[in-house]
């Protein structure tokens, strides 16, 4: 059986790439298709048993594709449809940017793991439009209109959807009119220990872009006067740095050992944005740190109010300050070992077991004419 894994772009290692890497662990002979990637980074990120090929679309050959890949978004549907997947029996697409729109054989099985319907053409379209430059604001409404139509049509090419959270499943239902199985993404919870001595500082970790709302954290801690470390890079770094008081330290992008150390020692993680799932809060809990999160989106599925963190209901500086003060004054107390135990329910091993089970439940693998397929899967150590 030939397996293809289709991903949008791979230029950094985030949640979508962690999913792809876990899928390759299940299908080490699968071929990987990506619009544009840093192949050295990809190969270093994939498991050692990867024996497939890495293919890129024509997007990767366009000028400045690695740095300006998002500018080529209007061409990505065409690029996907140029991929010849006729020899593949199982196609696993990883969707957040355009990935699911590939054309497959009528008898092939296409499962889409959806991290999110494309935010910039659906529910966050107006936010992206408002923050864009003058030329983009002029052109993008026409581009987004066509992308929306293609995105909705390409959803019909998928046999089964898997969503990374109930929140995303509801958006798949809204925009694509399709049901989706919920399988939470893989988190390497065993990388973290809850036993380190906790410090007095709080941590805010993530890309410094508008929807992550790191601005709320900086302003709240400016007023509180408590120590806050902000890890991440992005378009808002300079403006946040200018606003930060001496108690707020912006460290930019940091390697994993530094992030791990800070997660294991911080008093709590501040998570003021609304995410589709949110891997960082799970990593924080695995490290024994409670999470102070905006109570909407994926945080409602990972953080248990009063047991593993504090959820604040309004995305405002005042609401965040109140939640921090509740932790500071001892209104809520958290046991690091219990936080780690809760985080383990989102471990990569759980993801692999659930995604494997979902694949095998499909009719494609249940018919007697597919005995040879099941035999091949056994060879791949999947059964």
UniProtKB/TrEMBL annotation:
The protein, known as: Glycosyltransferase family 4 protein
UniProt cross-references to InterPro entries, sorted A to Z: Glyco_trans_1 (IPR001296), Glyco_trans_4-like_N (IPR028098), Glycosyltransferase_grp1 (IPR050194)
Single GO term (MF): glycosyltransferase activity
Pfam families, per the entry: Glyco_transf_4, Glycos_transf_1
Annotated ranges, domain Glycosyl transferase family: 199-331
Organism: Azotobacter chroococcum
Coiled-coil zones: none
Residue ranges constituting the Glycosyltransferase subfamily 4-like N-terminal domain according to the UniProt record: 15-190
Top-rank taxon, per record: Bacteria
């Amino acid at each position: 059986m030939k397996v293809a894994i289709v991903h949008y772009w791979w230029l950094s290692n985030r949640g979508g790439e962690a999913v792809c890497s876990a899928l390759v662990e299940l299908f080490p002979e699968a071929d990987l298709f990506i619009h544009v990637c840093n192949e050295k980074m990809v190969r270093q990120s994939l498991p050692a048993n990867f024996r497939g090929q890495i293919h890129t679309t024509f997007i990767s050959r366009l000028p400045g594709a690695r740095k300006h890949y998002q500018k080529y978004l209007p061409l990505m549907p065409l690029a996907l449809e140029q991929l010849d997947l006729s020899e593949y029996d199982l196609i696993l697409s990883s969707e957040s940017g355009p990935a699911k729109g590939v054309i497959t054989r009528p008898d092939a099985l296409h499962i889409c793991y959806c991290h999110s319907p494309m935010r910039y053409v659906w529910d966050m379209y107006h936010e992206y439009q408002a923050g864009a430059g003058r030329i983009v604001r002029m052109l993008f409404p026409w581009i987004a209109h066509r992308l929306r139509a293609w995105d909705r049509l390409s959803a019909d090419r998928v046999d089964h959807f898997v969503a990374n959270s109930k929140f995303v499943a509801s958006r798949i239902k809204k925009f694509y009119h399709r049901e989706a199985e919920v399988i939470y993404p893989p988190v390497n919870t065993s990388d973290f220990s809850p036993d380190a001595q906790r410090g007095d500082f709080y941590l805010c970790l993530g890309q410094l872009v508008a929807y992550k709302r790191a601005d709320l954290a900086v302003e709240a801690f400016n007023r509180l006067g408590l120590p806050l470390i902000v890890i991440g890079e992005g378009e808002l770094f300079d403006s946040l740095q200018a606003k930060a008081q001496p108690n707020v330290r912006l460290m930019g992008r940091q390697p994993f050992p530094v992030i791990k150390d800070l997660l294991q020692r911080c008093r709590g993680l501040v998570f003021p944005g609304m995410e589709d799932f949110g891997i960082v809060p799970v990593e924080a809990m695995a490290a024994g740190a409670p999470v102070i999160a905006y109570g909407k989106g994926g945080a409602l599925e990972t953080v248990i109010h009063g047991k593993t963190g504090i959820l604040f209901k309004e995305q405002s500086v005042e609401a965040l300050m109140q939640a921090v003060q509740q932790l500071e004054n001892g209104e809520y107390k958290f046991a690091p070992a219990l936080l780690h135990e809760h985080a383990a329910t989102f471990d990569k091993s759980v993801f692999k077991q659930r995604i494997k089970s979902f694949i095998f439940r499909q009719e494609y693998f249940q018919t007697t004419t597919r005995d040879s397929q099941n035999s091949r899967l056994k060879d791949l150590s999947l059964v």
